[in-house]
User: What shape does this take?
Amino acid sequence: LDRLPKIPDENSFGQLRTELEAHKLVKAPKPKQQKNQNRKRAPGEIHPRRYRTRDGWLVLVGRNNQENDKLTKGSAREDIFFHVHGCPGSHVILKQEGRAEKPPKNTMKEAASLAAYWSKARNSKLAPVSYTEIRYVNKPKGAPAGLVTIKNEKSIMVQPHEIRKEDET
Assistant: This one.
């Protein structure tokens, strides 16, 4: 403490600090980490769960309310939206990927079963899943994240289960 007021420059202060650290009188500063060094995702990016049906159709499943909003908003008008009726759960999108034909019934059931699986109805024997084209899905102004309204929906009863993930062969 006697030497502290007599330090002429920063370099001398650094030498004193090193000496104090060596005698364990002060703790060494923690090294600064670069921002986002340990982050896997950039802010605003979405990384939904990705599945493939037996027929090869891509199905995307939101992981949380914010991702549900971005997933639904970023989908093509022809993509098909699935959500369990009257129960909280993920938004599920069956991607058309430029196909002109409508998806087969078994593909629709597989996507609907994912919507049931990633909802509070997971442990039910059967769950009602509503579906419609994205063009009929709207987010009301000022609504909380994940809340949407749908029109022209149809319903399908399915057993909740997971299908093959996209990266599995």
Notes: The radius of gyration is 27 Å. Helices lie at 10-22, 65-73, 105-117. The CA atoms of residues 128 and 160 lie 10 Å apart. The mean pLDDT is 87.
